[in-house]
Amino acid sequence: MTDTDTPRRPGPWDARPEEAVAAPAEVHAPAAEPPLDKGQHPGVAIAGTLLFFGFIWFMTQSWVVALAVIFGLFVHEYGHVLAMNRVGMGPARIYIIPFLGGLARGQRAPTSEWHGVLVSLAGPFFGLLAAIPFFAAWAVLGGAAWLIGAAVIAAINLVNLAPAPPLDGSKAVGPVLARIHPWLERGAMIAMGLIVVYWGFTTGRWILAAFLVIALIGHLKRGFWRPDGRELTVRESFASVGLFLATAAACVAVGLAALMPLAQGSFTGAMEIAAYYLGFRS
């Protein structure tokens, strides 16, 4: 049952106020709405998920790690979806990209850069919740594989915070740097992009590195592009940096919490394990 006469708070699927433009008096037909994105076909999504799971299992020889990657991916992207729906960009959809991961796509652009920052950080922050079942499984069943799975989830979200296009960190930090000067944002994105690409190639993550190369070239071609909507205020800029650092700290904390039992409670040992899995030491 519905009551159309009762005032209600606008929901995430409602049009933004600036989109609700009244039609001229002589025109009785409603304004044409952009076609609704129906999302990825379920068959394509399932096939892509299975293919990605098989690829991760082949590369790691661990079904627990493969499960962690897939589950962590979905929870991460669902964090973006929740934020998009909350700020009026929905209904957002999740798309699976075989061998790479996934992405969340909204129906509308954010109304402000602040909303863009919140959406970008919602994925890594919410994505950490995916580690909870793996900690629970370790507590009940034991076995190092469950802890490795939780650490992998933390690493996925931490790597996504790198301020390199098209990772989430670039959308969270980029507007802050652009407010200082567009060249600062562009230079930082290029520098960090090259660092992440170098890390991908030198640690054997070839597909990720190739994808980042393509994204970096696209970023260079786009120039000083800025999203539509209101720019960050000074207060929002400080809040963006604070939320970015807090999310990064949460990712590190979850990762170390998973690795310290493997290092007999040693913080230094946990850091060494993390450095090994991230490819910073052999």
Brief account:
61% of the residues lie in helices and 4% in strands.
Task: Provide an overview of this structure.
- By secondary structure, the protein is mostly helical.
- The chain has helices at 42-60, 63-86, 113-127, 132-141, 144-160, 168-180, 182-202, 206-222, 234-259, 267-277; strands spanning 93-97, 101-105.
- Strands 1-2 form a two-stranded antiparallel ribbon.
- The model is unreliable at 2-15, 19-23 and 25-31 (pLDDT under 50).
The 3D shape can be described as globular
Give a quick account of the main beta sheet: strands, pairing sense, barrel closure: 2 strands, antiparallel
Any low-confidence stretches, pLDDT <50, length ≥5?
Answer: 2-15, 19-23, 25-31
Helical residues, percent: 55-70%
Strands, count: 2
Task: Record the SSE blueprint.
Elements: H1 42-60, H2 63-86, E1 93-97, E2 101-105, H3 113-127, H4 132-141, H5 144-160, H6 168-180, H7 182-202, H8 206-222, H9 234-259, H10 267-277
Antiparallel strand pairs: 1-2
Helix pairs in contact: 1-2, 2-3, 2-5, 3-5, 3-6, 3-9, 4-5, 5-9, 6-7, 6-9, 7-8
